[in-house]
C-alpha cells in the first residue's frame, strides 16, 4: 500500500504544485516573518495593557522562587495568536491561484476533488483555532482550578493519573491530559480533511474514512483501506498531544518553553516551509506545509512577545499559553512531513515525555553548560 500511496503522491505533485497558494519562497518567507513579527508586537502591547488588569487574586500564583506573579499571561498568547492566524489565513487565500483544484488520491484510485486550496486554508485555519482555543481552555482550567502552587503540581501523564487516583476525582490535570488528545484528534481531522495526499506514504484518505475504519476494527464494516486514514489520524493526534505536553514539562523556568519552541520552529518547521514553497525540494513535503509554518510562527511570535517580561519574572504563561504553543508546533510537523518522519518524531516525543517521569529536565539542563547558558540567557534572577 505504501508504494501505491507514493505513486499517488508523485501523480499529485505532477498535476498540482505542493502549495497552490504559496508557491514562491520569497512570498512564504515574507509571510513567516510577518506572522512572527506581527504577533510578537501585538502580544507585547497587549501585555502592557493587560498587566494591571490581570493582577487579580485568582490569576496570581507563586513562581519557582515563591514570588507571587500573574500565572495565566498565556491568555495574551491565545488572543495574539488567534488574531494572527485569522489574518494570515485571509492573506493566503487572497494570493493568486486560489481557484486551482486539488486532485485527491486514495489507495488504488484517483478522484477529482471539488476542494480548492482556499477551502484547504480555511480548514487549516479552523484547525489552528481549535488547537489554540481547546488547549488554551484546558490549560486555563488547570492553571486556575488545579494545584495552587503550580511548581509543585504533578508532572507528566503518570503524575496526573496518580493525583486523580489519590483524590478519587477527575482532576483538572487529568481533564487536560485526556481532553488534549480529543482536541488534537478533532484538529487533525479538520486539518487533513480531504487532503490531496501528504508526503510519501502519508496519503490522506478523506474526512469520513476514519469512521469507516473504526467500523472495520469493530467488525461492522468491510473497508480495510480506510485503516490508512485511522492510523494517520491517531498518529497525528498523539504527536500533537505529546508536543503540547512537552512544552508544559519544559515550562519550569522563565522563558524556557518559549526558547525551546523557537528552536523547534527554526530548525524543523521554517526550513520545511521554505523548501516546500520553492522549486528545489530534496524530499516530499505536505501541501499545507507553509500554511502551518505561518500559523505556528504566529504562536511562537506571540510567546516571544512576552519573553522579556517573562524573563523579568513579571508573569508566567502557564499551561494556558505553552500547551497551545506546543500543539501548533506538533500539528505543523504532522502536516509537513511523511509518515516515516512522523513515526520518528512520535518516538522522540514519547521518550522525552516518559523520561520526564523519572528525570528532571531542569537538572539535566543545568548539568550541560551550553544548555544551562541558553536556559538562563536574559534572566536577571538566574545568572
Keywords:
two-stranded antiparallel ribbon; two-stranded antiparallel sheet; mainly alpha; 383 residues
3D architecture notes:
- The chain has 383 residues and is mainly alpha-helical.
- The protein has one domain.
- Helix content is 65%, strand content 4%.
- It contains 15 helices and four strands.
- The strands form two sheets. Strands 1-2 form a two-stranded antiparallel sheet. Strands 3-4 form a two-stranded antiparallel ribbon.
- Strand 3 (103-106) and strand 4 (109-112) form a beta hairpin.
- Helix 6 (172-191) crosses helix 8 (227-250) and helix 10 packs antiparallel against helix 12 (318-336).
- The radius of gyration is 21 Å and the shape is globular.
- Mean pLDDT is 77; it is low at 1-23, 98-115, 194-208 and 216-220.
Cα-to-Cα separation, first versus last residue? 55 Å
In the sheet with the most strands, the strands line up as: 1-2
Count the beta strands: 4
Our count of helices gives 15
Brief summary:
With 383 residues, the protein is mainly alpha-helical.
List the helices and strands and how they pair.
Blueprint: H1 2-15, H2 25-50, E1 60-62, E2 68-70, H3 74-94, E3 103-106, E4 109-112, H4 117-145, H5 156-167, H6 172-191, H7 209-217, H8 227-250, H9 256-276, H10 289-305, H11 307-311, H12 318-336, H13 339-355, H14 361-367, H15 369-376
Antiparallel strand pairs: 1-2, 3-4
Helix pairs in contact: 2-3, 2-9, 2-10, 3-4, 3-10, 3-12, 4-6, 4-12, 6-8, 7-8, 8-9, 8-12, 8-13, 9-10, 9-12, 10-12
Amino acid at each position: 500500500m505504501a508504494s501505491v500511496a507514493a505513486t499517488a503522491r508523485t501523480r499529485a505533485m505532477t498535476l498540482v504544485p505542493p502549495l497552490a497558494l504559496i508557491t514562491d519562497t520569497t512570498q512564504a518567507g515574507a509571510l513567516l516573518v510577518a506572522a512572527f513579527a506581527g504577533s510578537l508586537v501585538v502580544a507585547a502591547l497587549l501585555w502592557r495593557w493587560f498587566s494591571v488588569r490581570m493582577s487579580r487574586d485568582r490569576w496570581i500564583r507563586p513562581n519557582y522562587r515563591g514570588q507571587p506573579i500573574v500565572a495565566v499571561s498565556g491568555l495574551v498568547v491565545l488572543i495574539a495568536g488567534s488574531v494572527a492566524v485569522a489574518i494570515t489565513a485571509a492573506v493566503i487565500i487572497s494570493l493568486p491561484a486560489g481557484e486551482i483544484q486539488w486532485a485527491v488520491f486514495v489507495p488504488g484510485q484517483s478522484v477529482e476533488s471539488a476542494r480548492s486550496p482556499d477551502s484547504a486554508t480555511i480548514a487549516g485555519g479552523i484547525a489552528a483555532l481549535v488547537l489554540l482555543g481547546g488547549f488554551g481552555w484546558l490549560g486555563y482550567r488547570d492553571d486556575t482550578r488545579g494545584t495552587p502552587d503550580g511548581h509543585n503540581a504533578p508532572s507528566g501523564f503518570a503524575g496526573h493519573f496518580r493525583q486523580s487516583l489519590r483524590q478519587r476525582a477527575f482532576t483538572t490535570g487529568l481533564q487536560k491530559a485526556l481532553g488534549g488528545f480529543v482536541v488534537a484528534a478533532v484538529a487533525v481531522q479538520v486539518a487533513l480533511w480531504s487532503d490531496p495526499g501528504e508526503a510519501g506514504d502519508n496519503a490522506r484518505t478523506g474526512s469520513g474514512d476514519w469512521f469507516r475504519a473504526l467500523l472495520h476494527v469493530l467488525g461492522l464494516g468491510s473497508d480495510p483501506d480506510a485503516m490508512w486514514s485511522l492510523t494517520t489520524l491517531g498518529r497525528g493526534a498523539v504527536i500533537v498531544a505529546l508536543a503540547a505536553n512537552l512544552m508544559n514539562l519544559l515550562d519550569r523556568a522563565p522563558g524556557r518553553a518559549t526558547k525551546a519552541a523557537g528552536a523547534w520552529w527554526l530548525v524543523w518547521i521554517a526550513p520545511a516551509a521554505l523548501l516546500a514553497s520553492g522549486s528545489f525540494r530534496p524530499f516530499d513535503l505536505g501541501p499545507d506545509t507553509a500554511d502551518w509554518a505561518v500559523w505556528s510562527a504566529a504562536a511562537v511570535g506571540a510567546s516571544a512577545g512576552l519573553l522579556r517580561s517573562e524573563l523579568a519574572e513579571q508573569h508566567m504563561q502557564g499551561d494556558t499559553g505553552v500547551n497551545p504553543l506546543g500543539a501548533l508546533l506538533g500539528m505543523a510537523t504532522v502536516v509537513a512531513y511523511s509518515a516515516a518522519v512522523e513515526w520518528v518524531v512520535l518516538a522522540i516525543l514519547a521518550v522525552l515525555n516518559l523520561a520526564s517521569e523519572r528525570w528532571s529536565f531542569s537538572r539535566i539542563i543545568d548539568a550541560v553548560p551550553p544548555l544551562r547558558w541558553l536556559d538562563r540567557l536574559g534572566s536577571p534572577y538566574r545568572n
